[in-house]
């Protein structure tokens, strides 16, 4: 019988990419549990709304009663946890929501998964748990955890809880740690969509510090494929790094966006650096490539050009996100069908 998976945070950038991917590439059914924070946008999922294998429930992962109810009601076989507070700058302003969702939320999900003997739990983590690199070297799965931002610290704490559940309870969990994602439907607080939208609107492009910080970019579609492989074929208790060998300095990415949007470099505006700004991330993904036969398929320059085109062609999505209009979508589409407790009304 086809399986049912609880996807948390499925209305966010990567979670919604993953839901579209897994519904197209497999026969599983999906229950999407999302709190619809500022980063959750059901307009990301209009393509699958009518799919009989897709269900949405509005609620928080920390709500154990709700998670238990969903798992029983939908006969969930396993959980993939994308839900998180995900923006470093916001974590610097206020770390509490990061502790609540990223740590307490992960613990609540695992506790219910254990209670109900679910067959698999995949924790979607990040390379930021490893901290910052100098000019040379790459993060491997053996690199020590050395998180530098409250966001990264909360993700690292969750990874430690996952590890402890595997060790203590033989809990069937796998962790993926991916580098910076880009692509369609990314909320314009992160570097690439923010710079694209600002360039399209002739607004200044705020570059932190000297613009020479390096990030290792991967398309959200390639990340989705890696998560699915790790969920279906990963070894219990293992960590898999995911990356596409696409290191770029921020300023290189910004100049490429200006070229793709036909805008001039006078829009570049150097601003005060982010406190504790990690200098460089780079991922060694040999393990997932050799053990699970995963490989990235989208070269960065092609993916960036496609992403710019997507933002140019989806002006309504962009306008709704910029104005806050997207937050009304839930009420319009789902308000009368599912209550916050998860019980149908
Ligand atoms: P996002 O901020 O776009 O989406 C997060 C989603 O989680 C939103 O839909 C939000 O409403 C939901 N959410 C937040 N708190 C919740 C809660 N308490 N209960 C239920 N839902 C809640 O994030 P993203 O960029 O799509 O990242 C998804 C996951 O991937 C995160 O775990 C993140 O740490 C990880 N990750 C992201 C990147 C990246 O470059 N964006 C890279 C590696 C790993
Ligand atoms: P971001 O997209 O916030 O991802 P992360 O901090 O998780 O890697 O930022 C990517 C890089 O871009 C990071 O080095 C900070 C930099 N940046 C800017 O220079 N200006 C901006 O306005 C933003 C949002 C980020």
Kindly describe this structure.
The chain has 345 residues and is an alpha/beta fold. 41% of the residues lie in helices and 17% in strands. The chain has a domain at 4-182 and 218-245 and 277-298 and 326-333: Rossmann fold (3-Layer(aba) Sandwich). The protein is built from twelve helices and twelve strands. Helix 6 (191-200) crosses helix 10. The longest helix has 20 residues, at 96-115. The model is unreliable at 336-345 (pLDDT under 50). Bound molecules: nicotinamide-adenine-dinucleotide (NAD) and thymidine-5'-diphosphate. The site of nicotinamide-adenine-dinucleotide has 31 residues, from helix 1, strand 2, helix 4, strand 5 and strand 7.
Short description:
By secondary structure, this protein is α/β, with parallel strands linked by helices. It has helices at 13-25, 64-73, 88-93, 96-115, 150-169, 191-200, 220-233, 250-261, 286-291, 300-313, 315-323, 329-334; strands at residues 4-8, 29-34, 54-58, 78-81, 120-126, 173-178, 180-182, 205-208, 214-219, 239-242, 247-249, 268-271.
Keywords:
binds thymidine-5'-diphosphate; disordered C terminus; alpha/beta; binds nicotinamide-adenine-dinucleotide; Rossmann fold; 3-stranded mixed β-sheet; single chain; 345 residues
Spatially, the strands of the biggest sheet line up as: 3-2-1-4-5-6-10
CATH class assignment of the domain at 4-182 and 218-245 and 277-298 and 326-333: Alpha Beta
Task: Specify the overall morphology.
Answer: globular
Cα gyration radius (Å): 19 Å
Q: Percent of residues in beta strands?
A: 15-25%
Write down how many β-strands occur, each being a DSSP E stretch of 2 or more residues: 12
Overall mean confidence score, pLDDT? 95
CATH fold category name of the domain at 4-182 and 218-245 and 277-298 and 326-333:
Rossmann fold
Q: How many H/I helical runs?
A: 12
CATH architectural designation of the domain at 4-182 and 218-245 and 277-298 and 326-333: 3-Layer(aba) Sandwich
Bound molecules: nicotinamide-adenine-dinucleotide, thymidine-5'-diphosphate
Distance between the termini: 28 Å
Main β-sheet description: 7 strands, parallel
* Structural class based on helices, strands and sheet pairing: alpha/beta
Succession of helices and strands:
EHEEHEHHEHEEHEEHEEHEHHHH
Low-confidence parts, pLDDT < 50 over ≥5 residues?
A: 336-345
Helix content: 40-55%
CATH homolog superfamily of the domain at 4-182 and 218-245 and 277-298 and 326-333: NAD(P)-binding Rossmann-like Domain
């Amino acid at each position: 019988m086809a399986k049912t998976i609880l996807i948390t945070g499925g209305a966010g950038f990567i979670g919604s990419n993953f839901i579209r991917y897994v519904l197209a590439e497999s026969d599983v059914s999906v229950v999407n549990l999302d709190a619809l924070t500022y980063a959750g946008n059901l307009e990301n999922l209009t393509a699958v709304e009518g799919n009989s294998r897709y269900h949405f429930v509005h609620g928080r992962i920390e709500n154990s009663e709700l998670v238990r109810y969903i798992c029983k009601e939908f006969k969930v076989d396993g959980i993939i946890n994308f839900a998180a507070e995900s923006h470093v700058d916001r974590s610097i302003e206020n770390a509490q929501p990061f502790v609540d969702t990223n740590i307490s939320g992960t613990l609540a999900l695992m506790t219910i998964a254990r209670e109900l003997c679910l067959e698999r739990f995949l924790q979607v983590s990040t390379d930021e748990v490893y901290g910052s690199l100098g000019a040379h070297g790459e993060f491997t799965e053996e690199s020590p955890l050395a998180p530098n931002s409250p966001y990264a610290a909360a993700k690292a704490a969750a990874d430690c809880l996952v590890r402890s559940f595997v060790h203590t309870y033989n809990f069937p969990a796998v962790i993926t740690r991916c580098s910076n994602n880009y692509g369609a439907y990314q909320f314009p607080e992160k570097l690439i969509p923010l710079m694209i939208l600002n360039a399209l609107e002739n607004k200044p492009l705020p570059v932190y510090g000297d613009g020479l910080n390096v990030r290792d970019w991967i398309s959200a579609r390639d990340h989705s494929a890696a998560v699915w492989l790790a969920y279906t074929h990963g070894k219990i208790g293992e960590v898999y790094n995911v990356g596409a060998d696409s290191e770029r300095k921020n300023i290189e990415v910004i100049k490429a966006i200006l070229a793709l949007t036909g805008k001039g470099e006078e829009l570049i505006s150097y601003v005060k650096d982010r406190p504790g700004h990690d200098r460089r991330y780079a991922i060694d993904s040999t393990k997932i490539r050799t053990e699970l036969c995963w490989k990235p398929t989208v070269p960065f320059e092609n993916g960036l050009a496609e992403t710019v085109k997507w933002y140019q062609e989806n002006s309504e999505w962009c306008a709704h996100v910029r104005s806050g209009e997207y937050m009304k979508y839930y009420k319009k589409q789902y308000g009368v069908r599912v209550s916050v407790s998860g019980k149908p009304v």
